[in-house]
Amino acid sequence: MLSLRNLVKVYPGPVSALRGVDLEIPRGMFGLLGPNGAGKSTLMKILSGLLEPTSGEVTLDGLDIVRHPEALRPHLGYLPQEFGFYPYLTGEAMLLYLLKLKGVTAPRGLKSLCAELLERVNLTFAAKRKVKEYSGGMRQRLGIAQALAGNPQLIIVDEPTAGLDPEERLRFYRLLAEVANERTVLLSTHIVEDVAMLCPRFAVIRQGRVVAITSPSEAKTSIQGTIFEGTASATELAELQRTRRVTQAVLFEGRNRVRIHSTGGDVPAGFERVTPTLEDAYLLMMKDTREASATSQQPPVVEAAREVAR
Questions:
Q1: Which residues make beta-bridge pairs with 186?
Q2: Structural domain boundaries in the chain
Q3: In sequence order, what DSSP letters do the residues of 167-215 get, joined into one string?
Q4: Conformational region of residue 100, where left means phi above 0, alpha means psi within -120 to 50, and beta covers everything else
Q5: Architecture of the domain made up of 2-219
Q6: What digits encode the pLDDT tens for the residues 76-87?
Q7: Rounded CA gap, 70 and 303, in Å?
Q8: pTM for the full model?
């Protein structure tokens, strides 16, 4: 169990990246969903021992990893958002180098372990290719291979599917789901589909605060019967955005396909009730927290900075 208690991170300025995060993350896949700038990467760096929090506690199976980050490393696999591969090394040579850096040992030697890891992530065919020739999905799979080395009990993956094409994304989903059967995997992403496909439970983070902890099915059920869809012209869309809770508006066959949230059933002509999606639920959470922030009497950054000062 990974436990976070009142985790705060304030950068000079002050800029408050995390404002009292509390989470209990069990074995299996757990998602951390939020927009860019929500504090996800700061949280991932703290959990991986790369950054110290301003205050708060983090424990893994009772081990205090804030006070003893060195004790975490043998149990951690980490795939950051930007991984610095050497482009002119082969995939095999790159992975072997990373295994040596991590201090991983293997009964049958690192070459044998390297081959096993490449096979597990379906990269054996590309072991002798230079990394610069790898696709985005292949590089991510190589990153997961190094994260798996040493059989860690906690794996952290930060925005792992950003930039992948649909086929590579599906392949990566299958790999992450397989990995999560044996350990805790924390998936940080701003892509709703990642959470919908992989995570039995997830937390939504915005402006450094956890605003919801739920599951994809619970989130959709909570707005069942309240999402309506119809088409609108550009002028009509502007009016809907002013007077209604619009969750999504996308172009479809040259017209705006609009989804709105209404609890009273009072909807514009031509709009029909539809099945809610996780994206509807997520976007409504974002709207709610923006509206709450707009009406707050105390600016969030100042408030968090004062909490730390106390």
A1: 30, 156
A2: 2-219, 222-309
A3: HHHHHHHHHHHHHTTSSEEEEEES-HHHHHHH-SEEEEEETTEEEEEE-
A4: alpha
A5: 3-Layer(aba) Sandwich (3.40)
A6: 999 887 778 999
A7: 32
A8: 0.85
